[in-house]
Prior knowledge:
This protein has helices at residues 12-23, 40-46, 61-65, 75-84, 106-114; strands spanning 3-7, 28-32, 93-96, 99-102. The chain is an alpha+beta fold. It has one domain: Glutaredoxin (3-Layer(aba) Sandwich), CATH 3.40.30. It has a four-stranded mixed beta sheet with strand order 2-1-3-4, with helices on both faces. The radius of gyration is 14 Å and the shape is globular.
Amino acid sequence: MVLKVYGKKSCGSCKKAWTFLNRKKVDYENFDIVSTPPTRSVLEKVVSGKDVRSSLNPKCKIFREKKLGKRTITKTEAIRMMIDDPNLIKRPLFVMGDKYLQGFQEDAVKGLIEN
């Protein structure tokens, strides 16, 4: 099963993730999160209904403009906004079969690729 990584060249966490994966010689497919964003069905599985905000990128302009850090947001609303502006998706986003991980934490990525 091939690991899919959605990221952005200008993202520091994405750069760290790619360096880590290359160093570990992990076979992965890289996708630009803006030009080739994850599908709605992937986002439906990634975004937790209990903690929607953890799937959002707080550095994104729309996050600040819509004051998403200060108000309640539903999973449906978050996914709609992510589809409209993929920059709002916390990255990198790792997809491996039916396993998903957002953000780069070395131990979490090791757990994803080793299981």
